[in-house]
Structure formats: C-alpha cells, structure tokens
Amino acid sequence: MTELIKYTAAETAGAIARGEVSAVEVAQAHLDRIDAVDKKVNAFLHVDREGALAAARAVDAKRASGAELGPLAGVPLALKDVFTTEGMPTTCGSKILEGWVPPYDATLTRRLKDADVVILGKTNMDEFAMGSSTENSAYGPTGNPWDLTRIPGGSGGGSAAALAAFEAPLAIGTDTGGSIRQPGAVTGTVGVKPTYGSVSRYGLVAFSSSLDQGGPCARTVLDTALLHEAIAGHDPLDSTSIDAPVPDVVAAARTRDVRGMRIGVVKEFAGEGYQAGVMQRFEESVELLRELGAEVVEVSCPSFTLAMPAYYLIAPSEASSNLARFDAMRYGLRVGDDGTRSAEQVTALTREAGFGAEVKRRIILGTYALSSGYYDAYYGSAQKVRTLISRDFDAAFAGVDVLVSPTTPTTAFPIGERADDPMAMYLADLCTIPSNLAGNAAMSLPCGLAPEDNLPVGLQIIAPAMADDRLYRVGGAVEAALNDKWGHALLEEAPAL
C-alpha cells in the first residue's frame, strides 16, 4: 500500500502545495487503491478516472503558475451518488435512475470543484437514501472494511467504506435520520450532520426535504472541518438555506480544549438494546471528557423516546411526495411503452421495475399517512412530536453546551441479519434521529473498539443549531486524547483488506 493513501487530507494538501508530491500522483494512488480493493468493498458505483486525473492536472498547473492553493486543493474525495454531477451518472442507488447523467452540478458539487477538490467518483448507497445498512442498493451491498461480511452503515455506507478502505481521504454523505453519523460509527470514521440549511440542498435528490442534509466525512476531525468549511454557506438557489455566517469549524477543531464546557449525557440513550461493549466505550469517553476538564451532567429529554415513530411517519410521507416525480415521463427508466398502454400503466410498470422493496414500503406507508382521514392522526401527530423534541433540545441546551450519547446502539451487524425485520433495521438510527427532527448539528467520531467483536464504536456529539463549531471543539479534544492513549489513530489500516 503506497503511503500517499494513508495521508490525512490536511497532510495531502500540504504536500501538494509544497511541491513534495503532485496532485496527479495522489489521484493515481487512490485510483490504484480503488482498482485493488473495490471489487471486495463495492464502495463505488462510478469511478471517474479521466475526470479525476484532469482535475488533478489542473491543480498541478495552478501550483506551477504560482497561484495560491486552497486548503483542500488536490485532495481526492468520494461523493455519495445522491448529488447531481454534470457529465457523471447520478443513480441514487436505484434502477429507476440507472444511466441518468444530470446536465448540472449540485451547489455542493460545484463548491467542491471551486475548492479544487478531486472528485474520484460516486459512492454506493441505500436506494434514495432509504436504509440503515447500504443493503438496499440496486447495485448490491457494500461491505465494511473492518469485516466484509458486515454492513458499513447506511444509507451512506459507500462513502464511509471508501474512507475506511483508504480509497479516499474525504467523502460526502447525506443525513436524513443518521446516514452520515451511523456509517461513521460502524466504520471507525468521522461524520458530521451540519445544522439543517447550513449546507445547500440544491441538486441533492430529495428523500425527505425537511430532514435531508449533506455533510462532510473523513478519517480525522480536522479533515472533516476543512471539508465542512468548503461546502457550507448560504445558497440563493436553496429556499431552505440559512443566510448567516458559517461558524469557524476549522479553528474549533484545532482548539482541542474542553475546559469549562458543560456536557450533557442523554439519559434516554441507554438501557435495553444497547450492546454492552458500546456502552463501555461510551462511558470511558464520558470519563475522558471529565479528565479533560469538562463538567458532565445527566440530561433528560423524554420526547426522544418518540422520535423514531415520528420520523417513520414524517420521512415516508415526504418521500411519497418527492418520489412522485419518477413517473417514466421525464427522465430515467421507462418500462412498457410499446404504444398499447396508457401513461398511467407505463408509470406503474416503471415504478414496479425501478423501485426496490424498501422504497416501495416507505412510499406506501407515506401515502397512507397523508391520505384523507388519516393525515391528522398520523402525519399531523408526528409533527407535534417533532415540536416536543425541539423543545427538549432547547431545554437541554439552556444548561449545557453539547449533548453526548452513543451514535448507534450496536456495532456493525452481519449483512442480511436484519433484512427481513424492518423494525430491527430502523433501531440502528435510534440515537441519531432526534437531531434530524430538530435540525441541529451532530457529529460521530470513533471512540474505540467493542471488546465483544473488536469493531468500531462511535461517540455522538450534538450541538445547537448554528453552533457546529462546538462539535469540532469537543471532537478534536476527544480524538487527540484517544490517539495519545492508544499511541495511534484508530483507523491505521482497514483490517479486512
């Protein structure tokens, strides 16, 4: 394994800026790594070799001309296949969009290009981001580089697996109910769900519009902060975009000091269903925060126990509306259009062939929840619960700077183990969903390996809306202390590869 693929994003950018290595060499090293291991991992749905090398050559030319390079210039990135990319396929892990090449870039994609980030390709995902395991992709499951027989989390398992397999030092995911943080936790990587509206959703193919949020993924807290800085900011093309300054997340990541901070442990995120090893590593992390000078208190957020049922009414309802656009008339797959069938029949045949089982399940559930006579009882009630959850967060943040919990109740489970039990699958997002319903910021970072199975455990940090910098301040301090304790970063090499 060439050492270039083990560099952090910050180290890679620095080496390129100093002329110690070319951006083309860095890109080629990662493309070679993808060629070597991705048949086992299945992290990528599309690899853009020509485009990546062309972008890398442009960075080298810029450096040669004496132009100043940005903090991530020349660094390779894996992009979740839910963001539109001009000239590159965007499938959302679905057969219904197989081969579709968008005519425009998402705002996030454009900002990556403007930052001279080298996009290697598009990563595998649960179809339309609906899932907790990346088993629901129409193009096959992704394996966890720690153990290829286990899931890498979902729906952004491809992005997290690409990081853990050293196929890319940076990645982008989306988080609707935990789909950045949960894959980060089970692959030993860092993932952040920014404040809702602080990263543009323009060009992000919608699952649940009031919940979906793109965000940064990396192997270190600082790398994640650098990527966060590159993609965040107001976008007039996105009606939900927040017109406010982005917190200085990079400076916060470098602070590594939690002295004087008040940290709340969420009482409701413990008990039955939580793996003993996960709780052990979480409790050790809480004790570490005390040792670092933070004050730790227990906080109760009783409405959090209602978050999962509320989410699984709100998200499918919005999905039912959003996915109505896939009607075989405008773009994507078209089945049965032989001149003998009506438009309605062609639409029905196309959706039957193009959508997978989980997408159909959620569309049906959402359509029912929005139907006449049931709207108030189901969707309306779920929105009331959402308000209660936001109030619980407000009350908690009146007394603490951040909240902490395990990111997931268990480590990565075997592929196929929960395939026939949707409820068991949904429980993987138990700790992450409240932040999506409230719209605030949250991070997962590695806090060790569970002793039962030697698989990664994630620590979740939750901050108020537009206080994303607090995530990086706490995360940077915990990461540095754990690395000192272990004598190395948790993810030095993907064990299963």
**What's the number of domains?**
1
Largest sheet: 11 strands, mixed
Strand share of the residues? 5-15%
Strand order of the largest sheet: 1-3-2-4-6-5-10-11-9-7-8
SSE string: HHEHEHEHEHEEHHEHEHHHHEHHEEH
**Over the alpha carbons, how many angstroms does the gyration radius reach?**
21 Å
What do these coordinates show?
This protein is an alpha/beta fold. It has helices spanning 9-17, 23-41, 49-64, 107-114, 157-164, 181-187, 221-231, 249-255, 276-291, 307-322, 343-354, 357-370, 376-397, 422-426, 433-438, 468-486, and strands at residues 44-47, 76-80, 118-123, 170-174, 190-193, 214-218, 262-266, 295-299, 402-406, 441-449, 456-463. It has an eleven-stranded mixed beta sheet with strand order 1-3-2-4-6-5-10-11-9-7-8, sandwiched between helices. β7 (262-266), α9 (276-291) and β8 (295-299) form a beta-alpha-beta unit. It starts with 8 loop residues before the first helix and ends in an 11-residue tail after the last helix. The model has no long low-confidence stretch (mean pLDDT 96).
Short précis:
The chain has about 500 residues and is of the alpha/beta class.
Q: Keywords for this structure?
A:
single chain; about 500 residues; alpha/beta; Amidase signature (AS) enzymes; eleven-stranded mixed beta sheet; about 10% strand; globular
Topology:
Blueprint: H1 9-17, H2 23-41, E1 44-47, H3 49-64, E2 76-80, H4 107-114, E3 118-123, H5 157-164, E4 170-174, H6 181-187, E5 190-193, E6 214-218, H7 221-231, H8 249-255, E7 262-266, H9 276-291, E8 295-299, H10 307-322, H11 343-354, H12 357-370, H13 376-397, E9 402-406, H14 422-426, H15 433-438, E10 441-449, E11 456-463, H16 468-486
Parallel strand pairs: 2-3, 2-4, 7-8, 7-9
Antiparallel strand pairs: 1-3, 4-6, 5-6, 5-10, 9-11, 10-11
